[in-house]
Amino acid sequence: MCSLEKIQGIFSDAMREVPKGDIGVAVSGGGDSLALLLLSVDWARENGRCIKSATINHGLRPESQSECEYVNKIATDLLIQHSTLYWSKKFTGNLQMAARNARYDLLKNWAACEKLSVVLLGHNHDDNAETIFGRLSRGSGIDGLTGMTRSQNLNNLEIFRPLLEISRIELRRFLTKKSINWIDEPSNLDESFQRIKIRKLLPTLSQVGLTPKKLISLAEHMNRAKTALNSEVYSFSENYVKQKKWGDLEIERE
Questions:
Q1: What is the pLDDT of residue 90?
Q2: Which one, of 58, 153, 131, lies nearest residue 99 by Cα?
Q3: Mode of pairing for the β-strands spanning 118-120 and 151-154
């Protein structure tokens, strides 16, 4: 397991890639995002950067407001500007997908209002492994099996995931050492969600060698394959594809 110093070192190495400007941190109150907030605050003070945090209240559970207030108190104690963002629109269809889309829309508007260069998300090593396995179970191709990317633009929201090399249990041990409690949302136990089924299945699969580390290794192989294929397609198009001024693409038949 990683020591406190090693976790901070891994985080600092990842943060070398973030752009200049003020940084946002999305904090739900769960173990991953609270660890992200604490690591970000320490890093920002050492590097002379400004951190702001936000929590989203989807209004789907009675406890949501008190959980947001708990996160606000932690941020205030850390002397960090904090905002609570409210989802008030009605939704139809897939609740999980609607809440996810609302989350990113609210973060995008918040980032624009606060003039943030990037928003940090708390996805960790285990989240990435679960994502890869989920896509594998759906028959995804090479692009899908590359897993989560550290840096990504989602509809003009610049996000960054600095915890992808740190496991869920290591982040919780970090919080325990810092004497910080986290919130376990009921959805993390609800097996009607595919990701929770996968989360509970992975420890069993690890017994036959399909560990999170192996899944991440698979994603790295797929990423190299994706890069090579994209390079070949680009090279081909440079030599054999021409675009007409009205937009048509003309491909050399042979």
A1: 67
A2: 58
A3: unpaired
Task: Tell me which amino acid residue 104 is.
Answer: Y
Q: What length does the chain have?
A: 254
Specify the DSSP class assigned to residue 1: -
pTM: 0.89
What integer best gives the mean pLDDT of the chain?
92
Identity (one letter) of the amino acid at 141?
G
Cα dihedral sign, 185-127-42-112: negative
- Amino acid letter at 231? S
Burial of 160 (0-12, 13-18, 19+ CB in 10 A): buried
- Which whole number is the average pLDDT over 67-93? 89
- Of 96, 101, 152, whose CA–CA distance to 128 is shortest? 152
Q: Name beta bridge partners: 242.
A: 250
Q: What ranges make up the beta strands (E) of the chain?
A: 23-26, 51-57, 81-86, 118-120, 151-154, 157-160, 241-243, 249-251
Tell the residue number behind the tokens 């030599």, with chain if given.
Answer: 239
Contact, 117 vs 158, CB < 8 A?
yes
pLDDT digits (tens, 9 = 90+) for 125-142: 999 999 999 999 999 999
Cα Rg, the chain, nearest whole Å: 20
Which of 63, 59, 110 lies closest to 89, judged by CA? Answer: 59
What whole-number distance in Å separates Cα of residue 26 and Cα of residue 24? Answer: 7
DSSP 144: G
